[in-house]
Amino acid sequence: MKVYLDTNILIAASIQAHPHHAQSFELVNNVKDGLLHGCISTHGLAEFYSVLTRAPFSPRVHPAEAGRFLEDNITPHFELVTLSSDDYKEVLIASAKAGLIGGLVYDALHLHCARKAECDRIYTFNVKDFRALAADDLQDKISAPPA
User: Fold this and answer.
1) In this structure, are residues 116 and 83 in contact, taking their beta carbons and an 8 Å threshold?
2) Is residue 57 predicted with pLDDT exceeding 90?
3) Distance between CA atoms of 52 and 50, rounded to whole angstroms?
4) N or C, which end of the chain is more exposed by having fewer CB within 10 Å?
5) d(CA 108, CA 100)
6) What residues form DSSP beta bridges with 4?
7) Could you tell me if 133 and 18 are in contact, meaning their C-beta atoms sit under 8 angstroms apart?
8) pLDDT tens profile 93-121
9) Is there a cis peptide before residue 63, judged by omega within 30 degrees of 0?
10) CATH topology of domain 2-143
11) What's the pTM value of the predicted model, to 2 decimals?
């Protein structure tokens, strides 16, 4: 099964004290073990690094530690989905027409990547927001990871 992981899944998987760590870590491990074909967007990698090194986790996550998590657990095991300039234009124009503001555009980009990669499932902890943005054909693919 081909699955797309939102940035918040990767964050939860990398922080042991995170309330969703166990289910997120299991999902990442299933990708690493080849049980699932995992996809993430290249902009999601940047989001992951930014959030992980800036969020008020205690103790703080050092940039080198964030880099190790990327190198050991994500980049060798996940298909990286890139967007072309036309993809960005399409998503941004559609977002403007839909009246989206702020960070919702990043969720729209994630959904576009999941569609582009033809994923069977989209995992996020922002299920409500993702479903509000998603086209009808993606609605049933969006869920939180099983607990």
Assistant:
1) yes
2) no
3) 6
4) C
5) 9
6) 39, 122
7) no
8) 999 999 999 989 999 999 999 999 999 99
9) no
10) Rossmann fold (3.40.50)
11) 0.94
* Preceding omega of 59 cis (within 30 degrees of 0): yes
Report the chain's terminal Cα–Cα distance, integer Å: 18
What is the pLDDT, as a whole number, of residue 58? 85
**E-strand stretches of the chain:** 2-5, 37-41, 79-81, 121-123, 142-143
Amino acid of residue 93: I
Q: What is the Cβ-side half-sphere exposure of residue 31, based on CA atoms within 13 angstroms?
A: 27
- Under 8 Å between Cβ of 126 and 6: yes
Q: Where are the domains of the chain?
A: 2-143
Burial of 16 by CB count in 10 Å (0-12 exposed, 13-18 middle, 19+ buried)? exposed
Place of tokens 């980049």: 75
d(C-alpha 120, C-alpha 125), whole Å: 17
CA-closest candidate to residue 105, choices 92, 124, 122, 118: 92
Q: With a cut of 90, say whether residue 15 has pLDDT above it.
A: yes
List the structure tokens of 117: 């990669």
Of residues 85, 81, 65, the one with CA closest to residue 73: 65
